[in-house]
Every structure is written in structure tokens, then in C-alpha cells.
Specification:
single chain, 342 residues, Porin, 16-stranded antiparallel beta barrel, 3 helices, 17 strands, globular
């Protein structure tokens, strides 16, 4: 996997070098300075400590959540390339963007899809140590749905997106495999993912998104026992939500629904961030999700915590979560995390 990352990065840099070399035929350009402008390297690490007491059994562990490195290459003013690797898991992003016009960009490759408000957002900016809401994790393929497996909210496909009406409206339409990262499609069907976002003001936006498709089960699931390994099944999703950001407070909330075969799932969350000073925020979140509404497999998480920004994108977090389950005993979850990013 590391060889793939290195070779893909070298390929991207080579594309940039060729583009620069073509320009040098027309005018004198500092090759090294131009390459530095066009190739940007970023990364972050998130690690922490977790304590749980599930069913009377206490456990604690240090954890390495994510260690990511990515390279962005601007081959031309309209054409760019990106490769991202998580060293704690696998290759995640490999895609190219071509900007046809101000309101149309074509993206091809493996990337985060645009279903839900939260999924396209970076873990470095989201407030919770667990990052995404339960419903986003399950319905976007971030790991808790056994039928789809751990796909990090990503897929392989082709997307058309853009900003219209003086950037007050954003749209995205994508055709994707529906199978996740680093694998080919498990059936002949493609998933359609659509998002529409209205930006009322700089700090207020409303989003609706949906997904229509056919899943191909890679494992069995206690949440959906009628679907067997290798089955093709209906997999549809819907979400609607909004986000408000201002200096005194920020709020993000969303309603989500899914249909996998004949099983319906419902979820909703609301996360609030209140700065108490320039570098310290209070975080509160209410997160509800029911994996199967027919048998009430719901869980509600109540989270309260603090985060301290000690340098730009770097922070330390402390959060307590009370997890209430409709099918088992409630339990406590205490987490800390340090984030280093550049």
C-alpha cells in the first residue's frame, strides 16, 4: 500500500513537472519555485485514550485513531490531482478534478461522496472525538454496517459539482460503484448520489441529499438478517439538515433515513459548539440512531466536553458520553484526544 502511495505521488508530481516544462518553452520560469507552488503536502494525526464500562466490564486503552498524509497537485489552473493515505488503515483518496467553468467541476476517482452534511467534512474540523454521528457512520459506510463494511465514507465514481448564483447554491451529482474503497463493483448497478445546498448567508446553510442504489453484501448483519453474503439489495438514503456558524455559537443538525432491503433505519443529531474564550470551546451533542425500526435497535448518545486549540489546527479534547441503548444496558464513555495537523 505504501508503494502505491509513493508511486501515485510521483506520478502527480511528474504531471506537474511536465506542465511546468511546457510553460518554460514559452517563458523563463524558476522550475523549483513553480513546483513548490503547485505541490502541497498536508497531514494530521489523532490519538487519545478511551475508558468504557459496558455491562459492568471496565476497559481502557490508548488509541491511534488516524494518521493521514495527502498531496495536492495543481497541474494547471483548471486541472488538479489528490492522493491521500491513512497509515493506520489504507489508501483513501485518489482522484482528479477538472474545472470546466465556475459552476461545473468534474471529479473522477476514489473520494468522499456527498451524501449527508457531515460526511464530506474533515475529522480535523468536526467537534466529536468519534467524529461523525451514529447515523452518518452507518449510512455512509464509515464502518458500523456489516453489509458494506469499513469504507470511510468513500467510493469510486464520477461526480459533477459546482457553485451557482454567486456561490449561494451548491450542487453535486455522482454515479458511484456503491462498494467502497479499493475494490471493484460487486454488481452491475451504480449508485446515484445527489446533494443540494442553499447558503442563505456566510454562516447559514441548509442541505438535502440522497442516495439510490443496489448494495452487494460482503457480510451478514444482525441488524438485517434477511440479507445474506453476496446478495444484491435495495440501498436508499435520504438526509436533510442545516448548519449555523457565528462567533458566539455554532450549531449543526440533521435528520437521516435509510432503507436496506426491507429494513428501515432512522437517525438525527444536533451538535453545538460554544467558544468560552479564543482557544477553548464547550462541546455538546445529542445523537440518536435506530438501525432497525421494526425491532427498536436504537441508541442515544449524550456528549459534553471541552476542546483547547493550542496551535492553529492542533487541539486537545476531553469528552464524556452517556450511551443509552434500547436493547442493552446503558454505559459510560470517557475519551481524550490530541490532534496534530499541518
Amino acid at each position: 500500500m505504501k508503494r502505491k502511495l509513493i508511486s501515485t505521488t510521483i506520478f502527480a508530481c511528474l504531471c506537474c513537472s511536465i506542465a511546468i516544462a511546457q510553460q518554460t518553452e514559452k517563458k523563463e520560469i524558476d522550475w523549483t519555485q513553480e513546483l513548490t507552488k503547485r505541490v502541497n503536502v498536508h497531514g494530521y494525526e489523532q490519538a487519545g485514550f478511551t475508558f468504557k464500562d459496558v455491562n459492568g466490564y471496565a476497559s481502557n486503552t490508548f488509541q491511534l485513531y488516524r494518521t493521514l498524509l495527502w498531496v495536492n497537485c495543481d497541474i494547471t489552473p483548471r486541472w488538479s490531482f489528490r492522493v491521500m493515505h491513512d497509515f493506520s488503515s489504507k489508501l483513501q483518496d485518489v482522484y482528479t478534478d477538472f474545472k470546466v467553468a465556475d459552476g461545473l467541476t468534474i471529479r473522477f476517482g476514489q473520494f468522499k461522496h456527498n451524501y449527508t452534511l457531515e460526511n464530506p467534512m474533515s475529522p480535523t474540523t468536526l467537534e466529536l472525538i468519534d467524529v461523525y454521528a451514529q447515523s452518518v457512520v452507518y449510512l455512509c459506510g464509515n464502518g458500523s454496517d456489516p453489509l458494506l463494511g469499513v469504507q470511510y465514507g468513500r467510493d469510486l465514481g464520477l461526480e459533477f459539482s459546482g457553485e451557482l448564483f454567486n456561490k449561494h447554491f451548491f450542487y453535486a451529482v455522482a454515479a458511484m460503484n456503491g462498494q467502497g474503497v479499493n475494490v471493484k463493483d460487486g454488481n452491475k448497478y451504480k449508485d446515484l448520489i445527489v446533494k443540494a445546498e442553499t447558503r442563505v448567508t456566510d454562516g447559514l446553510r441548509f442541505v438535502v441529499s440522497g442516495q439510490l442504489g443496489k448494495g452487494h453484501a460482503i457480510d451478514s448483519s444482525i441488524y438485517n438478517p434477511a440479507i445474506k453474503i453476496g446478495d444484491n439489495y435495495t440501498r436508499n438514503r435520504f438526509s436533510a439538515g442545516g448548519e449555523f456558524k457565528s462567533k458566539p455559537i455554532s450549531i449543526r443538525s440533521e435528520f437521516l433515513a435509510g432503507l436496506d432491503g426491507d429494513v428501515e433505519s432512522l437517525g438525527a443529531y444536533c451538535t453545538v459548539k460554544v467558544p468560552v474564550c479564543k482557544t477553548v470551546d464547550v462541546i455538546a451533542s445529542l445523537d440518536y440512531f435506530d438501525k432497525n425500526t421494526d425491532v427498536s435497535m436504537e441508541q442515544t448518545n449524550y456528549t459534553i466536553g471541552l476542546q483547547y486549540w493550542y496551535f492553529r489546527k492542533c487541539r486537545v479534547q476531553l469528552q464524556y458520553t452517556r450511551c443509552q441503548l434500547g436493547y442493552a444496558k446503558d454505559y459510560n464513555n470517557l475519551q481524550t484526544q490530541i490532534q496534530i495537523a499541518f
